[in-house]
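TA notes. Do not distribute before section.
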Amino acid sequence: MRRLLLAACLAALSAGPLPAATSESTAEMQKGILPSAVSSARAPEESGTAEVESHAARPGRIEGRPAAAEVSPLQARVDAARPGDTIVVEAGTYRGDLVIDRALKLVGRKRPRLVGSGHGSVVRIRAADVTVEGFDIDGLSGGDLGDDTSGIHVAAPRAVIRDCRIDNTLFGVYLREADEARVERCSIRGIPGKEPGEKGSGIHVWNTQRFVLTDNRIEDVRDGLYVQSSGNGRITGNVARNLRYGLHYMYSNDNVFEGNTFENGAAGTAIMYSQRIVFRRNRFLRNRGFASVGLLLKSCDDVLAEYNLIADNARGIFLEGSNRNVLRGNVVAASDMAIVLYDSCSKNRITGNSFVGNLTPLFLVGRRTDTLFEGNYWSDNDEPDLDGDGRSDRPYRLTSVFDHFRGNLTAADLFSQGPAALALGAAEASFPILQPLEVLDTAPLVRPPALDKVPTAEAGGRVTDWPGAAG
């Protein structure tokens, strides 16, 4: 009888046609929305993130002066300026590309339009201490990804890009070895109609130290923020949505992310091969592409993630090969899997978080973990608190046999609330041999903690959009 029960459960899980997400993910891969390694993965244990575009992007050639026929009429004013001058540009349309090769301020009055040639970067900063402020910039949907064609391309230190609107360019702002650069209050929108693989990043940061990105709005590009080999930066108050990766990040240490929103990405966010990063009061929302992740850490150590809202993602948090990270005071809600954890991780601490309305609390890949789960709230924990200390009287078990048999994330989710999962749970209770590695929250909370520092879902919204979370 027991064998029949187990066989029936497994048959229920495997029956039926392949889920639509499998064919959709193939289409996404062909369009460049997802890296091929992610798109072809059927389950976390099959490939993990070992090939989530882990190769670093190499910059292209540095553009010099444009051809004579493609030069902006503002070039003569720049060439005549002395270092330290301020050039005020009145309202109007100025066609052609511009090279700034001396320290100066280029300030737009009443939002003049800089319309590029369509062949190269519209503004090319090649000297230290340049400010560009108050322009609308149009790249005419042209250029070459291999040349890093941008609205504003910076290859010198201490540039300030402020209050610019950049449209129809492959890259919005490209910082190449541009130490102490600042990009503030810019709006960046990519080229409509192009596939993600044919676009560049909204703000691309390469080999740049002590940079600041503040209050920028980015949409319809490949990756909202791309950060590589760049450290000691501050990234605050930015919004990146409707793209592939909201944040694509590697080989970059000691950066702080605070108050940003990464929303509606086909792949979510990916942080790789980095150390000592702080994520505080950010929103990772509605990243629902195949294998999307709210916050992914691969080979990252000593990361602090606190007071973030991670909600409505295919996977909330993903940890692989990452050590000594602390995740505390976050709300992880309404995701298919709250946490995917590989046994290649060690000495991580997950404490004081609120996990609300997720289909699965934990998917453990492997047979061991020393990750500490303690003092979290789990909305599906029904253990009583008889002594009234605010914690369940027994530990909360995060793993189950059903999750162990989830061969395909999307396919398994179709059954997660159905009779097959319930039957397998009954078999699990009867069969000690079926029990997976036990992962426990040793002191689970019976009520959601008051996480007042966690941001609301969106302007005017409340964290309580997800039942059980505290606002």
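Switch to the second chain here.
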Amino acid sequence: MILESDIAQYLDTRRPDNLKQFSTLEGFLGSQLYSEPDLQKSVDVQVAIIGIDETRNAYPMPYAAKADNVRYWLYQLAAFNNLKITDFGNLILGNSAADTYSAVSYITESLVSGGVIPIYIGGSHDLTLPIVEGLWRAKGKIEIGLIDSCFDIADSLNATSRSYLLDILRKYTSSVKCDVIGSQVYFTSQSQSDLLDEYGVDKYRLGTVRQNINSLEPVLRDCDFVSFDAASVRQADMPAAHQPSPNGLYTEEACQLANFAGVSDRSKAFGIFELVSRNTPMEMSAHLTAQIIWHYIYGVSQRENDYPACNFDRYKKIFVKLDSLNTDIVFYQNPKNDRFWMELSQKNGMAGAVVSCSKSDYIALVNNEIPERLKNAFRRYGI
């Protein structure tokens, strides 16, 4: 779509000198991204990359972040000829973190409203908060996926990278649904887990990713925004993550989750955060971060105009009688890719909804078995 906006005042589109060498690599992202866009004019773009080196609200203290380190590797990866993608440069940081938040929220709202998918290279994880605010302003009710090793719900007077999720849940109780993927039980207290249950947050531990990563595709298919904490990847693979852990996602799992997010026609934004600009381990971490971003973009390039980009008229409609709840559940199946959705009708004064699901979820309900994720959905929508 054509973007017409005054976001140029918030962005520095200049390119570092070390990226110029990649501008002539035909067939690679450097040739697509090196030219500086003129944001004072209309820009025809589908995907926009933006760096945000903001860490003033990082926990326990600020650190140096540099999105250009990731660009160095991203520019060397294969291009996408079927996508109009550009690099909008780095956000000009505000006088305070709150000023930066305002700019991020405005840019997100402007881009998403214009049909552009922003990809953010952070920066600390609290930047999720203004991105969610901008998305909410643009779209209303949304669902977000957080790929993180812990729950960032510390009770704090100010938003930090360890408390922002609680701020989101409190502020958008009825309009933002949240999923957390990759959490590790030793980083989680029982009181934190109980609190997230109260807010209806669906939690998927690292073991779930390891045992059946494909079960998370429908979870990410339902997300309007996925926020990726670099520290969710194990330290051996992401040594420059802020507060890394010896356990975590493997590189292939991180890239696969990003791809699941990108291929969803519902996904409107993506961000990866908590990468420290250190000299020694930075090179491998920046390279992996670039590959995670590449897999998200690759997913976008492979979209199939699925729901909600289209309606269900062309899908197969299946009714399943669920004896345990004495109700009929309506499924829709896309015969081209075998993806399933479940329609939950309005009931008990609550609005209906469409929930993405897998073929195994469908088979389970046919056998009157209810997977945990669908139990949570039934509970949430009053079934």
